What we know:
By secondary structure, the protein is an alpha/beta fold. The protein is about 35% helix and about 20% strand. The protein contains twelve helices and twelve strands. The strands form two sheets. The protein has an eight-stranded mixed sheet with strand order 1-2-4-3-5-12-6-11, sandwiched between helices. The protein has a four-stranded antiparallel sheet with strand order 8-9-7-10, covered by helices on one side. Helix 1 (about 5-30) runs antiparallel to helix 6 (about 155-175), helix 6 packs across helix 12 (about 425-440) and helix 8 packs antiparallel against helix 9 (about 315-335).
Amino acid sequence: MKIPKLEDVLRIKAIVDEISTQIVKDRRDFHAFPESGWTEFRTAACVAARLIDLGFRVKLGPEAVDSESMLGVPSDSKLDNRMARAKAEGADPALVDKMRGGLTGIVADLVCGDGPLCALRFDMDANDISESLDPEHRPFREGFASCHENTMHACGHDGHTAIGLGLADVLARIKNGLNGTVRLIFEPGEEGSRGAAPMVGAGAVQGVSRIIGLHIGFQAKKLGQLICGTGNFLATTKFDVSYTGIPAHSGAAPNEGKNALLAAACAVLNLHAISRHAKGTSRVTVGKLTGGQARNVIPANAFIQAETRGQTTEINDYLFSCARRIVKAAAGMYDVDWNLRVVGETGSGQSDPEMIEFARKIAQDMDVFRSGEIIDYCDFGGTDDFSHLMSRVQDQGGLGTYIMLGTTLASGHHTDRFDFDESVLPVGVELLARSVSALLK
């Protein structure tokens, strides 16, 4: 794998300069209309329409997502509501209808003759967070803040999707200089670790020999910085727990009640008391606990949203096994019914040294990355189910890496004031376009 020739580099750079305004415009559009996992109907429809116009072979709906593998899918009524909303906000109704049931993933191929198949992943979903309305928050001040309640792009996936579309535009224009096939994977439901497995189940990485994932910011917090490879993604299991007891008058007949909220509280305390694993990083978090009806009623219901994470799949499996035992035992202590539902999961992953070195060579040939700020590798310190896509490519003999692209952040990821320096967007497009040009020469 070599760096592109000078004439190819100049051609790519000229195209990126030409479309840089459009890339930012796309990011702001996606930011204003965020959609959470399995409801990305408008986002996916806009992406699919552009890719079709650019000459990509586009798969969506059941061709791109295996419905049997989906976890954490919203109710039918919510999906129908979000489909209608997407159409009202300008999405092509015919494309939206093809994604009925939350099948919002896209697999798009640009066939450039004989040669290898390389893939790039871009996540599209937003977070369940209400965006800040502070005038100092740039998206609000400049008029592109989220118009959807309790939903915002607080992790940069709007930027990732915009980079993916910019890359598609560049590749369509340099197609005649490539040999092989480029596959762009636009993934729904990455938050909650839900999107990768169903797309793999539908064949998204079948035949792929090289795969690249990219994330803005995270551990690369300075413009001009690049982390070429990432490893030790935290494997995770996301799960919901429901406890169901019996209500009763808290003064007159407390003995007739079965207290579901006490069972949940007992579970929460003991989940956080699970012994950490000696072989690596381990995490247990209860992010939400709700329950009960009124102050004078024995609570007959309680609900928990929780997750386990481990440096390896083995560690995470240990944590989740302990969590399930605790959830069941807490129900037994208070004589209530319980139900545990897994709503997302993914394994760990590791970038390949060969692809890390490849990314370094591409970056070193770009003057935007500052001396000493091209970093070969770091532990991710979190979860991204790109690790599942990459691991499946590696299982079939291919190679992959996950790049973190540096940019200045206004606030931390998953906060209501998250924003980033948009000048990083054309940089990401150029970096990936150069990478594809080198891989398919």
